[in-house]
Amino acid sequence: SGTVLRDAIATCVNEARGQFDHVRDELAQLQKLLSDAIETLVASFNGIAAHGRSQQAIAVSITKGGTEHGQ
Predict the structure, then answer these.
(1) What distance in Å separates the CA atoms of residue 56 and residue 27, rounded to the nearest whole number?
(2) What pLDDT, in 10s, does the model give residues 37-53?
């Protein structure tokens, strides 16, 4: 009876350990996906901001009577 109980507990512990390992791997994968997504978003926002600054410079140049190249 004690051996059956010990075996059952060992089985439960091994199963739980396997599930925890799986969850840990899933979390690591999610963290990588989020990190990549955040990096891409930041790069995109920086590109949008740079484009906005360029458009602003063009608008200022036009209102001052220059060309798009600031001449």
Answers:
(1) 43
(2) 999 999 999 999 999 99
Nearest to 68 by CA among 53, 55, 50: 55
In terms of C-beta density within 10 A (0-12 exposed, 13-18 middle, 19 or more buried), how is residue 23 classed? exposed
Please report which helix (H) or strand (E) contains residue 43, including its range.
helix 2-63
Predicted TM-score of the model (pTM): 0.62
The span from the CA of 2 to the CA of 14, in Å, is 18
Secondary structure element (H or E) that encloses residue 14, with its range: helix 2-63
Instruction: For residue 57, give both structure tokens.
Output: 């410079």
> Residues in the chain, how many?
71
Helix (H, G, I), strand (E, B) or coil at 20: helix
SS3 at position 67: coil
